[in-house]
Amino acid sequence: MFFKWLRSEADAIPLALIMLSSPQLPLTTLEELQKKGFYTYLPNFETLLRDSDRALEGYSGRMKRVLEAAIAVQRSGSREALEDKLRDVVTELRTTLELSDLNISNLYTLVSTFVSTMSSMIVATLALVSSGASTVAIGMALVAALLSALAGAAIYPLEFSLSTPPWKSYSPLLLFPVVYLALTYFRVPLPLTLSLSVASIFPAIVHLYYTKREIEKIKRTREMVRVAARSVGNPYQALVRQGFIKEPGDLLSREESIATAARLGLYQILLHGGYEFLEKLNDYFSNIVDFIFRLRSKTRVFLLYAVLETVIVSAIYGFLVTMLPLFSEGGEVLRQAGMSAAGILELEQNMDFILASTALALSIATSSAREGKPTFFTMYLPLIGFSLFASYLLTLTLAPGLFR
Questions:
Q1: Alpha-carbon distance 392 to 397, whole Å?
Q2: Res 328: pLDDT
Q3: For the chain, N or C: smaller number of CB within 10 Å?
Q4: In the chain, what is the greatest distance between 2 CA atoms, to the nearest angstrom?
Q5: CA–CA distances in Å: residue 257 to residues 67, 287, 330, 398, 404
Q6: pLDDT for residue 232
């Protein structure tokens, strides 16, 4: 039930885009798309007209509004009323676009602060006065990872997020235990953090290429719609002449993305006429693409923020660990002040787990804010993990000089 709701929420705006672009009545358009293998999880033509209330159970509120508008227009037989019926959905889309970039920035700021600044301050205080600091650090990182994944899915418009890469592209992560055992055998410091970073390098490269390819598809689809909308005469001939397609069937992409919806809308127009709808399709789709690129441009800096935060966090932890000799030199004075070496020793012993969980949390937070899904965390894990590793070891090397 939940997955049906989630899928219908992501498909509501794309389906509305297709219906608004199609010269046919909306349920006729849906029926034709279902015969081609699209939106087959939605109720069919007859079911929607016969018992719409029951047929729409379990779908998201936005999808219900789209289908209810389609049913009302289908029953009236007047396609001209469709845009009036979908005005609320379109208005909601525009409001979502305006608020999303602000909400996403606030989300990332909140989560990254929770993982880095706030977490390190709490952990440092606990390590100096009692035990349990490492448990708190790992727990806060894992909670932040979970919250960022859930909040990212709620705030980032699902229909505009990139589709998840094929699961087989994550298979190199299976090398993680092998890398960990090898690093442990050769006594390399922080083997867990380093093995996570090493094992995610190849998936990061694959997913960077995958993301670039998906963005290029969106750009190409926007250009295709623009060429069709601005063509003089037959838009089909213009698309063939520009090398976009060879026949209308080339537009029937099976991939899940907003670009697919634009292609299906274009397919409906080429198949059934109604070239006056091309300008409307171009307008709606261009607004969506502009939002996607604007958001990606704005969130590009999040990776830099993540790296800076990792350097700060690992430096704080490294500085704490280098304070251990002070307890042997002036232990009595520190103990009278309520400080103990036990918490710092525990922190040092569990530092690998703390840094590894921090790397995962910041990678998931960055992925959720930038891509709208936590599944792209592999693109950020190598850089964040290596930054934590290098910064911590560098602090252990340089910080003792401060106490001389």
A1: 9
A2: 61
A3: C
A4: 90
A5: 20, 15, 63, 49, 60
A6: 78
> DSSP string spanning 44-82?
-HHHHHH-HHHHTTTS-HHHHHHHHHHHHHHHHT-GGGH
Whether the Cβ atoms of residue 359 and residue 388 lie closer than 8 Å to each other: yes
Asked if 158 and 372 count as a contact pair (C-beta separation under 8 A), the reply is yes
Exposure of 46 in the CB half-sphere (CA atoms within 13 A)? 0
DSSP 402: G
- Which tokens in the block code for residue 56? 């729409």
Examine the pLDDT at 98 and tell me if it is beyond 80. no
Q: Closest Cα partner for 365 from 7, 34, 21, 112?
A: 112
Structure tokens belonging to residue 162: 């990139």
**Cα dihedral value 135, 136, 142, 148, nearest 10:** 180
Q: Which single residue is written with the structure tokens 């996607």?
A: 292
Give the relative orientation of helices 133-155 and 351-370 as an angle to the nearest 10 degrees: 10
130 or 364, greater pLDDT: 364
Residues 285 and 292: their CA atoms lie apart, in Å, by 11
DSSP 250: G
pLDDT at 147 over 80: yes
DSSP letter assigned to residue 375: G
Q: Give the pLDDT band of residue 339 (cuts 50, 70, 90).
A: low
Segment of 42-51, 247-256, 319-328 carrying the highest mean pLDDT = 42-51
Check if the beta carbon of residue 265 is closer than 8 Å to that of residue 18.
yes
Phi/psi at 57 (nearest 5 deg)? -65, 135
Contact, 176 vs 396, CB < 8 A?
Answer: no
pLDDT of amino acid 327: 67
- CA Rg value for the chain: 27
Residue 163 gets which letter from DSSP?
P
Angle at 34 between CA 260 and CA 274, to 5 degrees: 65
**What mean pLDDT value characterizes the chain?**
86
> Would you give the end-to-end CA distance of the chain in angstroms?
64
Cα 264 from Cα 252, distance rounded (Å): 6
| Summary count for the chain: helices (H), strands (E) | 21, 0
The token pair at 278 is: 């091309």
For residues 111 and 238, which has the higher predicted lDDT (pLDDT)? 238
Residue 400: CB partners within 8 Å, gap ≥ 6?
322, 325
